[in-house]
């Protein structure tokens, strides 16, 4: 490892600290002597101050311009020009570049040509050629040729990404979307802050509340729920009412009776103890709507790319989910909760929903299969190996030139 010990992370979702894997990777790198430059767009997500992280935020206007260049025009010249300017204005010399998802990959590839710095690709979203275009995917395929390592959540998604991006198994690394270590139960509980009666059982829905997460359908099933069950809605950026305004207006009579609304944003995704303490079930539904490249096959082949499910399991919260592929199989096999066909079926499940061993099973499965700590040492070893290999090449080149 050279003396710089600095890594650039390019994450164009702008919610780095709301992503369990990225939060853990940052903690791992910081704990092993690295400093981090984080390039990201302005967004609703909290980005708390973190020592030894240099925050390189760009505005929404620049973000929209970059989106047009990278995702609509596909102009190699304009992409290269943008990254060249950013390199001149903001970037330093790095040991490694981490490109997250498509745009992060493309920018990392351009920087690799400019700076001769190795880069790895972390995929949370898979773009399929059948839902985009040959030209759209050709940029990714070209940028994937020189990566030193690619990271994906499970073997199901790995096979899809390998095919779509022309990747090789030899530099693949599996990392489920999950935090590090089991979560702790907290005496300070969101349910109490929302004045949920103590005699009520609580189901919660956390994270995104888009069409693909079926939030609207789940909320509309509330009137049929058993009297002793209530639902807490917790949109991760604290925009629950804004995002679900129409649905909540229709069910106004149930607000603070059977529906309780959390308006607090999740600052650190690895500390959900207050939110999930005293919760009896976590709801996680997924439905591909094929309205765009992010919510089609990317959702259908979800694999272990569900942060909300892994978070429920981390705190021992039983999961109520629909048929979400790999996770549905695992929930059945390891008795982690219940699987239903539709949101309308939730009420029937709740009538006779007993925890049994769900909490024990959830924590056991998380500890044995999902916990970031299982994968961290191997990931760090690979990162160090990539850096050391590049250092050896640089040393050889300097010696040759001398």
In brief:
The protein has 402 residues and is α/β, with parallel strands linked by helices. 42% of the residues lie in helices and 16% in strands. It is built from 17 helices and 13 strands.
What's the topology here?
Layout: E1 6-11, H1 20-30, E2 35-41, E3 53-58, H2 60-73, H3 76-89, E4 96-100, H4 101-115, E5 119-122, H5 134-143, E6 149-152, H6 155-165, E7 172-174, H7 190-193, E8 201-207, H8 215-220, E9 229-235, H9 240-243, H10 245-250, E10 259-262, H11 273-276, E11 281-284, H12 297-300, H13 307-314, E12 319-321, H14 326-333, E13 337-339, H15 346-351, H16 358-370, H17 372-401
Parallel strand pairs: 1-2, 1-4, 2-3, 4-5, 5-6, 6-7, 8-9, 8-11, 9-10, 11-12, 12-13
